[in-house]
Design a protein that fits this description.
This protein is an alpha+beta fold. The chain folds into two domains: about 50 residues; about 150 residues, 60s Ribosomal Protein L30, Chain: A (2-Layer Sandwich), CATH 3.30.1330.40. About 45% of the residues lie in helices and about 20% in strands. Helix 1 packs antiparallel against helix 2 and helix 4 packs across helix 5. The radius of gyration is 26 Å and the shape is elongated. The two termini are about 15 Å apart.
Length: about 210
């Protein structure tokens, strides 16, 4: 912010010098009018940039704590990719799985090796992993304007058809944390296999405050 005020002062000092150097009253009036326009524009930009839009009537990160959730350090990618990519005010989150606090994953096929309830819990755990990675990207989860899109992939066999009930574990937590801003477009699909036999893998797109 200091740099913007310094710029305004710089403009004022230099234009004032120019105006004082002009002998013609008409040119002086025009110069003064131009000076006022420039200064007004600088002040308007300063005012707009200083606005902090409060998106929530509560602290998002305090709510996460109140739910008994502790965010974790995001795991480093094991291949040639990153956990997230930000472009403008959109953050594209790489797919993550249900990594537990000890570093191990919830594994197995939902419907045959894991119950739907266990699959739901795995999806909720994946939501915690994604929130942790998102915080690492944007610094403060109070900046989240909207969870835009979620793609949930469930490790199942071909006969399983209740994928949405599993991915609800992810979606429900997003709404618990972000309220109406956590509601999102979504796809919940089945996969014949997932990396390391994890129970689910979920990616998302998030809109954040600039």
């Amino acid at each position: 912010m200091a740099n913007k005020y310094d710029f305004s002062t710089y403009v004022l000092q230099n234009l004032t010098f120019i105006v004082q150097s002009i002998n013609s009253p008409n040119i002086m009036k025009q110069s003064l009018f131009l000076l006022l326009i420039i200064l007004s524009s600088c002040q308007l930009k300063d005012s707009e940039s200083s606005k902090v839009v409060e998106l929530y009537d509560y602290d998002v990160e305090e709510r996460i704590k109140s739910l008994g959730i502790e965010l974790v350090e995001p795991a480093k990618p094991i291949a040639n990719y990153v956990n997230s990519v930000r472009t403008g005010n959109l953050v594209f989150m790489a797919g993550n799985g249900p990594r537990k606090s000890d570093g191990n994953f919830v594994v197995g096929k939902v419907g045959s090796e894991l119950s739907i309830e266990e699959g739901y819990a795995a999806a909720r755990l994946t939501a915690i992993v994604q929130l942790s990675a998102l915080k690492a990207q944007i610094g403060d989860l109070n900046k989240v304007e909207r969870i835009i899109k979620v793609l949930g992939m469930v490790n199942t066999d071909a006969s399983f058809t209740r994928h949405p009930e599993v991915i609800n574990g992810f979606s429900d937590l997003m709404v618990e944390v972000f309220g109406k801003r956590g509601k999102h477009a979504r796809a919940a699909v089945g996969m014949g296999s997932l990396p390391m036999n994890i129970a689910c893998e979920i990616e998302m797109i998030v809109q954040v405050q600039e």
